Amino acid sequence: MKTSDLVLIIGAIATLLAVIPAFINIFKGTYRKNVESDLAILSALPSNSKIHKTLTEHIEKKIEKLIDSESSLTRNYAEAIAGFAVFVFPAYGSYYFYQKNGGWIIISVALGFIALAGNYGFFQGIKKTHRDEKGNIIDDKKT
């Protein structure tokens, strides 16, 4: 096995490992939606119950965290680096298959979609915005 083949295999594995968390994050709810759902649950509970008090305190803590996080804008460099890696490896793979004169047109289409996802992840991570404690973007439009 040649070194270039090994590099391609490692790049493909790294690309898959980087893409999976990105697709998992797409289906995650925002922090504000979680607070809204907690408020809906709170309104359904009787106001004199112990659970009502506990949930009220929990919601207040969440709102305090939200206010604190809005006071600073941050970037998620780990997401930007992962997005860049997801962009570079498919680009290299496409170039590699082009050099081999193998079915590079078909493979390049698939690798192009993966590269677009990496490009999106890179720009999402480098964007200076409001984030929660885990680095997830807090959607300000839902206020």
Poorly predicted sequence stretches spanning 5 or more consecutive residues:
none
What's the alpha carbon Rg, rounded to whole Å? 22 Å
Q: How much of the polypeptide forms β-strand, as a percent range?
A: under 5%
**Count of helices?**
5
Decide which structural class fits the backbone. mainly alpha
Mean pLDDT across residues: 75
Main beta sheet? none
> What is the succession of H and E elements?
HHHHH
The beta-strand count equals: 0
Overall morphology:
elongated
The termini sit apart by 56 Å
**Percent of residues in helices:** over 70%
Word description of this protein:
The protein has helices at 3-26, 31-44, 50-70, 77-100, 104-126. With 143 residues, it is mainly alpha-helical.
Topology:
Elements: H1 3-26, H2 31-44, H3 50-70, H4 77-100, H5 104-126
Helix pairs in contact: 1-4, 2-3, 4-5
Question: Could you list some keywords that capture this structure?
Answer:
5 helices; 143 residues; mainly alpha; 74% helix
Give the structure's gist in a few sentences.
This protein has 143 residues and is an all-alpha fold.
